[in-house]
Every structure is written in C-alpha cells, then in structure tokens.
Amino acid sequence: MPEGHTVHRLAQTFEQLFAGAQVRLSSPQGRFAAGAALLDARVLVASEAYGKQMFLGFAASPDGDPDDLLWLRVHLGLYGAWTFAGDPATAVVHAIGAPRKRVGERETVLAAAGGGGAESAAPAAVTLGDWEPPAPRGAVRVRLESERACADLTGPTACEVLSTAEARAVQRRLGPDPLRPDSDPQRFVDAVARSRSPIGVLLMNQDVIAGVGNIYRAEVLFRAGQAPLAPGTTVPGEVVREIWQDTAELMADGVRTGAIVTTRPEDRAGGATPDVGRRLARQNTDAEPGAVAREDSFYVYQRDGLPCRICSTPVALAPLAARNLFWCPTCQR
User: Fold this and answer.
1) pLDDT tens digit string along 165-205?
2) Does the active-site annotation cover 323?
3) Hey, which CATH number is domain 176-327, 3.30.465.60, 1.10.8.50, 3.20.20.60, 3.90.1170.50?
4) Active-site hit among 9, 24, 42, 52
C-alpha cells in the first residue's frame, strides 16, 4: 500500500496533467460506469490528497462554484495503482517522469500508443486532437482522458463520486495529515495521550494520523528512540510532537524525491548489507545516479537480524496489528 507521500505526489501529477481541462471519464471495466457518467466531460478544478486518499474535484465549467463540485474519491489500498500516458510534449514535462514510473508502490508513465480508436467514443465537447491514447490494459476501473494525457485506475479499495459536503466529511473522520498545511498536530498529540494502544499501533491508525504506513512507522519511532510497544498514554507529549515534526519533514522529502530515505548520511557508511535474495522496498530513485541505495535508506525497516546502524544490536521483527514491526531493542528500549 502506498504511503501518504506517494498519494500527494499523485495529486500533484493530476494537477499538472489535467487541471483546467475538460476531461472524459469512462469505466472500461464497467464497474464504475454510473460514477464515470456523472463526471464525464466536466472540468478538473481541484486535486488534493488527504492521508492515503485522493480527491479530484470536477466542476461543470472552468469558473464553476467551488462549493458545488463533484469529487472522485480514490483509495488505492493494497492493490490499486494509477498508470499514465501522454503525448510527447507531456512526457517531457511530466514531473514524475516517463517512461519508467508508476504511481502506487512504484510510479510509471506508459508511452502513448498510436492508432487506438478511443477518440471516436468521446463526447462531442471533448477534443482529443491528433494524439491517441493507448488502449486500456487490464481491468481498468476508471479512465481519465484529456487532449494530451490519460490516466488509468486499476484495483482500488475505494472509488466513488461524492458531493463537496460528503468529501469533507470523509476528511474530517481522518486524523491530521502531516503533509497538509491545514492540519493541527495537537489533534495527533491529544489522540495519542488518550489511548492505551501501543504507539506503534497508533501511528498506523489513519484516524489518529493520516498517511503514515509501515515504513514511516518503523523509521520515525527509531529516530525518536521510542519503544513501539509503549502505550500512548505513557509517551511524553514532547516526544509525540517530535515524532509529528520528524514525520512531516521525512514525508515532505518523499514528496520531493519520490523515495523514502530516513537515514542520515553519517549512519549509512559501513552498514551491513541485507542478505542476497531478501526482498527490499522498491524506490523510485533506484536507477538514478547518486541516489541513496535502498539498502542504505532505512534504519530498521526490512533489516531484521542485521546489526543496528547505531548500536550493532540485531534489529528485531515481530507482528503488530497484522503488519511486520521492525525496531532496535537497545536504541528503542
């Protein structure tokens, strides 16, 4: 499941590719035909992320009432992904980069394929020009098309059309998102202080803090020197605030680079290399010259059994709330 920084990058991508454009929506798979019909030929005027959920706002016209939008809410879940294609000019300016990335756990932009026939089925008001998008691949729940780009959604956990009031109600039920400037970190501090659940569980609870996944959970707890099994009521408020601030900074870096890197430069040299064949988290920067290698990117995540980068104690692994928890028994005593 993508962590919050990926969804914010995804929202930025829709802003770059479709903002202000009249968009054709369809459901090649057929499971979202009614919802696509409600949004078809509307103008994308808003693109925002909240935690692990994305909200695309569509107006009847470019100058439509911002309080009277229809919103496409998408939660990718474990198996969802967006795939993009664009005309040659779009591929050059694409912020995420073509043709090697896919937004999900990975990020991919597919090269456009000529000769597709999708233009003939478009509403009369939408002109796709000379560029023809590639045919949908797999079970595409939703396709968005403009004159210069298209985006395909497959395998989401949630995909629905909401009014503005309904979209805001969904957001209010979530915890604060460290990447949103309108978030109140005190909500997170107060929620932790009220709960006897382990802090390692609370960080994964989207009602407590939105957008944190298993990697950030493990890494921010290590960086804070915080035992993951400590009840929230026992964690000092100043530590909780430090965790919030550190999470916000690390996730903002993830939005900027497309990769999660939590290690400080001085802690990377000389660290043990994971066993050959061990599955490692993929990073969008894996093939980029000068990027931090994925085996150097984390302090404890996926490093169970290897010596801690700080104290050399073997990194521990145990299940917690149906996910693998990684921590250092010494640094996080």
Assistant:
1) 999 999 999 999 999 999 999 999 999 999 999 999 999 99
2) yes
3) 1.10.8.50
4) 52
